[in-house]
Amino acid sequence: MRVLGVDVGVKCSHYVVTCEKKVVEKGKIEETGKMGEVGSTRETSEPDLDGILPRVDFAGIDAPLSFPRKGSLRECEKKLYKFGIRLFPSGAEFFKPVVLKGIEIAQSLRKNSVEVYEVYPFATRKILGIAPESKKNRKAGLERIKFELRKYLEFDDLENSDLVDAAIAALTVELYLEGKGELVSGKDGSILIPSLGEKIV
What we know:
This protein has five helices and eight strands.
């Protein structure tokens, strides 16, 4: 069983593939249709994402996959706020390109029979205690996050915070498939998180 985690960016998204809690592939997808594994120069001229994304069974996408029915927050986001988990509002104008890119990636995966979930890596870090107070954009913070993440996931290295988020997205889906996750849902979307109230090791 292969699980894809995607950290969505407007011009460049990063991905990680895991299998049985081990990272087996990682890379990036660029807006031009170029895909390169970290450290390689593999490319494709495909006009869309079909044939670009790795072959997987399940996927976790780190981006909202829907817009709010009204206002700036979806019902599932409001529920996460009540759990003390902060996030960017999916209805904010500045965040719209990320949402649209996430939806595009999800649609491409679903066309290939991949079961897709929206995931929020910071929520996973908060619930599992993966250095939630550490700042991923600082070297020391990122190293601390990777140190704690190794309690749940095997990997050689994840060179940047985008790959770390992609790996956490895949981990969240793996936990859910083991019965250790839950969907926080509303009428306008849902976010997959690890089970609340239990420490999963």
